[in-house]
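Entry 14. Structure prediction run on the chain below.
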Amino acid sequence: MPPPSVRWSHPAVVAATCLWLGRIPWAPGTWGAAAGIGLAFVIEQIALAAGEASSATALAVELGLIVLVNAASIPICTRAAAALGGGKDPGAVNLDEAASMPLALLVLPLEARGWTVMLLAFLIFRFFDILKPFPCRQLERLPAGCGIMADDWGAAAWTGCCLAVAWLAGWLPG
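Output returned:
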């Protein structure tokens, strides 16, 4: 738990806790991943609007936005961790989950990402985020915001692999 002197209004803390969702005392990472589903939906809508003429344009826009969000999240998480008492990965910081969820969905075509698939991706992502299979646990050892973010990128990669297999096997709707 952060010390009482934490400035919850610090902009990095507000962003890194997904507008204070990370302050919910139970399962802050789950709330961050849920926010990530919303973020994925917004990014997909922007990509679809930008790529009306071409699916390649939509993919480029989506990829660019996801990279931008994840790159910006590294220094935000670094600053928030320091403001929250300097812990390696404070529990209240859940921007890492939110920013990584859209990354997990990149393996699927935009039109295949209905709410059933989003819910499945959410559940798989949380499984791998909690389990931390190789190399997720090792990625946590990276310094500051990189370590906070990288283990969730690993969970997103595992999730993406599961989704890709399910898509190619025909197990997903759409």
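The chain has a mean pLDDT of 93.
Filed with the rest of this week's runs.
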